[in-house]
């Protein structure tokens, strides 16, 4: 039955009935119907509107209204929406006579990406707040903070007239070299999915739609537009899809963006399995799906797969859609469905509902939140003999290029046009520390000369890392005499469209290493301490140098207020409470995916076989007893926490189990702790990781001596693993061990419960089978 045509049929019956009632009534009704013959879109008449649309109009809804302003890599900004929101990434076309306004789409995950200056008029600016990179925010392990940041982000989109945010991005961090890792949250699907859900809740609470991306397995940038991610059904369900499943089910984002890559032989936007069978049938998703920008090959296949919107959209693609319907290649019913999902999304937008944006977001309030988000997310990795916090007024010798020119965000489409940013140097000065000026002057000159010699390019592709300034030995010695402590920043940046190199990026250069050694030796000889700051967007090698300094802070790429936040942690105004959302291996080769990254053939990989299967991140390190440099979930505090009194509501699981335990601050400073629950599940027919994160909670700020009871409920899905043979989630019978820990390797409490008989938790579609056999890792 054709719902869209049938609507017209019903309308005719309605008319006939009215004729019978009488001439007068007929006249009135007929008049109404003729008025309604060009219906105006409302949330109640989407089907009627579609019934009145021409084929060309339908095509103009599914093909985005973006306009390329040059090649992505040359220009940085694409899809400029002149006259409305310049610099926005894309749009959905308007059809004014049907009451359909334009819908504006803009990036991205750390802030609004639009042109900050318009028509060369600097009297009015359109800056966005540049929040910490997502991996950093994930280090907060704080769902409430994520929601607050989402709300602030949403409000900036709203004030600047953006209807749908192209955020959050939360592909799984499979390998440290993915250039885009900073844009993503974690190697663990549960942590990542929960944080993404909070971000979506926040954004959508403002009336702006969120887009979860990139669906799915966009785990690398090398040949990202063509590479085929070959992944087992189980690893897809338990790792790569799971993070989306959680976020989508818990937060119902307006839109999903498919990825550039293929999964098991099919481009993600062209995959019916992915966009219809999994997303709509298995998960019940009812929003619309859009492509990533210029993704895939065959737009008709994309529409048929359930990928409703093609972005950024080209004129010729509209004709292609019209032609495909006329030739019978594309059933108009399918096109109608695509249009219906998009129109339903449009009826929710602020613009559709008459909101007039004022270009005036509360940037001051958001800057404060940006600082707090960074403070809550800095991770203290090492702190021998209470090196940190540093007393105010201390004299600091500040080394490292990025102490003065701090990396605050990634490159690529998540780069934000911010009004200002606070470097580490500025933050320390703002906080009342004294910084050695002669040393600073040397760095300033070096950085300025380098800037002139290598002017900054656009923000896509390989990032040029400025070689580290090597301070002469005499200067280091002078600083060691004239200051109290050395702080040294190690800086790395990367982003969209290029993965990172092992040498000189993931690993420090020889010059960097020898400078770190020199500084440490010279300062230690003077009995002075040394603190390293890691100003990075992703995992780097740490094992070869982490013994050198007295303290290490992972400060990530901390957003525009980063310097102030870092200084507040250094001074002890803020007690660090972040924990790592990714594993730092001893050697790159210790990462299970290192054998298969970025795929084969090496230069332009056609396929990347995920042979590590479900053993991503700590699932591998823990299960195969490989000691990392810093484990997943790790992070110190200026205080200490005690875990006690774990109680389970029962010892035999039926539908759920409640549990609780107590965290006590047994140190001398107020602080927050992130408690983590790792479940060890019995291996029956399925191979299992030794433990997996199933719950986490961050305490409130606990004063010394203060306690907080943490409560969790484990349900069936929390126990389940994916049985590919039968395409279902099952909880196998046997003994389950609840481990409560301060990290994935620091368990403090444990208890056991039993499942008597295997539980069939959820049956799903048999889809996305790999086309080739994968030699998958098992224990
Ligand atoms: C990125 C997306 C982004 C889009 C629009 C693409 O290159 O992969 O994440 O939303 O551009 O700017």
Automatic annotation (TrEMBL):
Keywords tagged on the record: Hydrolase, Membrane, Transmembrane, Transmembrane helix
Top-level taxon of origin: Bacteria
GO MF term set: beta-glucosidase activity
Transmembrane segments: 12-30
Domain Fibronectin type III-like span(s) in chain numbering: 673-744
UniProt record, GO biological process: carbohydrate metabolic process
Xref: InterPro entries: Cellulose_deg_GH3, Fn3-like, GH, Glyco_hydro_3_C, Glyco_hydro_3_C_sf, Glyco_hydro_3_N, Glyco_hydro_3_N_sf, Ig-like_fold
Pfam families given in the database record: Fn3-like (PF14310), Glyco_hydro_3 (PF00933), Glyco_hydro_3_C (PF01915)
Secretion signal, residue range per the UniProt entry: none
Keyword set includes Hydrolase: yes
Family: Belongs to the glycosyl hydrolase 3 family.
Protein name, UniProt field: Glycoside hydrolase family 3 C-terminal domain-containing protein
Organism for this UniProt entry: Plebeiibacterium marinum
């Amino acid at each position: 039955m054709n719902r869209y045509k049938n609507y017209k049929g019903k309308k005719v019956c309605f008319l006939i009935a009215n004729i019978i009632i009488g001439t007068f009534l007929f006249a009135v009704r007929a008049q109404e119907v003729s008025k309604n013959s060009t219906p105006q879109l409302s949330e109640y008449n989407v089907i009627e509107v579609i019934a009145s649309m021409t084929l060309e109009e339908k095509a103009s809804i599914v093909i985005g209204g973006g306009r390329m302003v040059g090649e992505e890599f040359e220009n940085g900004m694409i899809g400029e929406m002149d006259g409305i929101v310049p610099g926005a990434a894309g749009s959905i076309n308007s059809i004014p006579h049907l009451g359909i306004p334009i819908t504006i789409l803009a990036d991205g995950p750390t802030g609004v990406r639009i042109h900050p200056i318009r028509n060369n008029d600097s009297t009015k600016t359109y800056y966005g707040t540049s929040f910490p990179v997502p991996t950093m925010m994930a280090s907060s392990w704080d769902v409430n903070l994520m929601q607050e940041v989402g709300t602030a982000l949403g409000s900036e989109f709203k004030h600047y007239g953006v209807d749908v945010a192209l955020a959050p991005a939360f592909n799984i961090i499979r390998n440290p070299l993915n250039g885009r890792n900073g844009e993503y949250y974690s190697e663990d699907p549960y942590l990542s999915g929960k944080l993404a859900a909070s971000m979506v809740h926040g954004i959508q609470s403002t009336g702006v739609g969120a887009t979860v991306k990139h669906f799915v397995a966009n785990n690398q940038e090398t040949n990202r537009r063509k590479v085929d991610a070959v992944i087992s059904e189980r690893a897809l369900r338990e790792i790569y899809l799971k993070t989306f499943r959680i976020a989508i089910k818990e937060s119902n984002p307006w839109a999903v963006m498919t990825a550039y890559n293929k999964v098991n032989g099919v481009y993600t936007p062209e995959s019916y399995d992915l966009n219809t069978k999994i997303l709509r049938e298995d998960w019940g998703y009812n929003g619309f799906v859009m492509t990533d920008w210029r993704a895939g090959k065959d737009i008709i296949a994309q529409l048929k797969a359930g990928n409703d919107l093609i972005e950024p959209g080209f004129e010729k693609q509209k004709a292609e859609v019209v032609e495909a319907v006329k030739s019978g290649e594309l059933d108009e019913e399918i096109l109608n469905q695509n249009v219906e999902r998009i129109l339903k999304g449009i009826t929710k937008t602020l613009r559709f509902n008459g909101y007039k944006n004022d270009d005036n977001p509360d940037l001051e309030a958001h800057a404060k939140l940006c600082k707090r988000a960074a403070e809550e997310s800095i991770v203290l990795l090492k702190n021998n003999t209470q090196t940190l916090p540093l007393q105010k007024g201390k004299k600091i010798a500040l080394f490292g290029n990025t102490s003065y020119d701090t990396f605050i965000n990634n490159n690529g489409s998540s780069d934000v046009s911010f009004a200002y940013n606070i470097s580490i140097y500025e933050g320390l000065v703002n906080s009342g520390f004294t910084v050695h000026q002669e040393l600073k002057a040397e760095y300033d000159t070096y950085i300025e000369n380098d800037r002139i010699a290598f002017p900054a390019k656009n923000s896509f592709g390989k990032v040029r890392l400025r070689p580290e300034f090597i301070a002469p030995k005499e200067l280091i010695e002078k600083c060691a005499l004239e200051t109290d402590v050395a702080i040294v920043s190690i800086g790395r940046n990367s982003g969209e469209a290029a993965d990172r190199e092992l040498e000189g990026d993931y690993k420090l250069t020889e010059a960097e290493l020898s400078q770190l050694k020199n500084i440490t030796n010279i300062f230690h000889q003077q009995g002075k301490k040394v603190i390293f700051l890691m100003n990075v967007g992703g995992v780097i090698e740490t094992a070869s140098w982490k013994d050198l300094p007295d303290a290490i802070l992972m400060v990530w790429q901390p957003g525009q207020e980063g310097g102030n936040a870092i200084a507040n942690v250094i001074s002890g105004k803020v007690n660090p409470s972040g924990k790592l959302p990714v594993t730092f291996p001893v050697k790159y080769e210790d990462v299970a995916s290192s054998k298969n990254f970025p795929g084969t053939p090496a230069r332009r990989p056609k396929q990347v076989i995920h042979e590590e299967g479900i053993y991503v991140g700590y699932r591998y390190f823990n299960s195969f007893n490989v000691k990392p440099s810093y484990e997943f979930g790790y992070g110190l505090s200026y205080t200490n926490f005690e875990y006690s009194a774990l109680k389970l509501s029962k010892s035999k699981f039926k539908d759920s189990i409640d549990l609780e335990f107590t965290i006590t601050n047994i140190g001398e400073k107020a602080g927050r702790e992130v408690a983590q629950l790792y479940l060890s599940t019995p291996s029956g027919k399925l191979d299992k990781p030794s433990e997996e994160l199933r719950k986490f909670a961050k305490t409130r700020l606990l004063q010394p001596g203060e306690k907080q009871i943490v409560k969790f409920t484990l349900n069936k899905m929390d126990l389940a693993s994916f049985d590919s043979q039968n395409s279902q989630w099952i909880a196998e019978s046997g003994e389950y061990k609840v481990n409560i820990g301060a990290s994935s390797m620091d368990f403090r409490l444990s208890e056991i419960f039993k499942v008597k008989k295997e539980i069939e938790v959820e049956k799903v579609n048999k889809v996305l089978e790999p086309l080739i056999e994968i030699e998958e890792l098992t224990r």
